[in-house]
Amino acid sequence: MKKIIGVLVLTFVVSMVFATTIYDVQYTDVAGPDGTYPSLLDGEEVTVAGIITGLKFSGYKDNFYIEMVDGGEWSGLYIHMAGDTTLVVGDEVEVTGTVKEYYGFTEISGYDDTFISVTLLSSGNDIPAPMIVQTLDLTDAATAEPYESCLVEVNDVVVTEEQINFGQWYVTDISATPCQIDDGFFYLDSVTPEIVIVLGMEWAVIRGCLDYSYDEFGINPRTAEDLIDEVSSNENAIVTSSEFISCYPNPFNPQTTAFLNLKSASHVTLNVYNIKGEKIKTLVNEELSIGEHHITWNGTDNNNKNVSSGIYFFETGIARQDDDYTSVKKVILLK
């Protein structure tokens, strides 16, 4: 009888080990002394399963991200130095190893000869859809931690800071709070055509795996296809006329200037719209001569009241006898 009970207990313990999920590893509402949220299973050996969403992180094929089949918050995990593998994105794997906190970043790591085992379960699986977040969500550990190592996506963003230090750059959306975009999977100058980040550049979609490094969360696009600009994402997008050069600075506070370069005398309208599509300011509605024109907006509406932080749109109409142009430029007011 004692022998049977022992077998039952052993079976139960083994079942508990294999029942561990990525959610179990990641979820916690207890902040650590450094402000991050360390795993409650830190230092324990676990076996988890997930679908590979990103491969070759930091240039090594055995560094990859996995996510639970159904995705969602707390469903992603970084696997570090898993050994020489032939895995690809979409493979479902089972990983056994020790949970570690690497300066606030939860991972299973084979570093320093720590035991780690990866077993291929199936191939050709759909990966979980990226979770759409605001840039504000990724700037504080309390709101960013649920997305750690998950596929995330930000929409309709503007570059607020060009590449610095180790290749990271920053964008912001309607929340008007910049978040980091990093180059953990590939360098922007390694693709053809080379991707050059310019202050004020607009992106319709940026997606990638969210990591935590040097006290900051960052989205890591996996390939150039994770960076979608305004025109390529919308076949009906209005292509900006070369006569409407740019707005600078963008983002701005307290004012920004639109630069026009007319090829001939034209009737020009320049209106400012808010994110709801409401016209809040008319900057120009008159005939302008050939050549350059600088038009400044000081962040006020038609009643000369200051508007709130957020995304606004400059709609420029250029009318002349031979042709008409309409262009739209997104600007961000930060306060």
Could you describe the 3D structure shown?
There is one protein chain. The protein has 335 residues and is mainly β. The chain has 3 domains: 101 residues, Bacterial OB-fold (OB fold (Dihydrolipoamide Acetyltransferase, E2P), Beta Barrel); 98 residues, OB fold (Dihydrolipoamide Acetyltransferase, E2P) (Beta Barrel); 90 residues, Immunoglobulin-like (Sandwich). Helix content is 8%, strand content 43%. It contains 3 helices and 20 strands. The strands form 4 sheets. The chain has a 5-stranded mixed beta barrel. Strand 9 and strand 10 form a beta hairpin. It is elongated. The termini are far apart.
- In what order do the strands lie side by side in the largest sheet? 1-2-3-5-4
**β-strand amount:** 35-45%
The CATH topology of the largest domain is given as OB fold (Dihydrolipoamide Acetyltransferase, E2P)
Task: Return the string of H and E elements.
Answer: HHEEEEEEEHEEEEEEEEEEEEE
State the shape.
elongated
Rg, Å, rounded: 25 Å
The CATH class of the largest domain is Mainly Beta
- What level of helicity do the residues show? under 10%
CATH superfamily of the largest domain: Bacterial OB-fold
Distance between the termini: 73 Å
Counted up, domains total 3
Report the count of strand segments.
20
Quote the average pLDDT: 86
Give a short account of the largest sheet: 5 strands, mixed, barrel
Determine the structural class based on helices, strands and strand pairing: mainly beta
Helix/strand layout:
Blueprint: H1 2-18, H2 22-26, E1 45-55, E2 64-67, E3 76-80, E4 92-102, E5 105-109, E6 116-122, E7 131-132, H3 141-144, E8 151-164, E9 168-172, E10 179-181, E11 202-213, E12 216-220, E13 227-229, E14 244-248, E15 256-262, E16 266-274, E17 279-288, E18 291-297, E19 310-319, E20 324-333
Parallel strand pairs: 3-5, 7-8, 10-12
Antiparallel strand pairs: 1-2, 1-4, 2-3, 4-5, 4-6, 8-9, 8-11, 9-10, 11-12, 11-13, 14-15, 15-18, 16-17, 16-19, 19-20
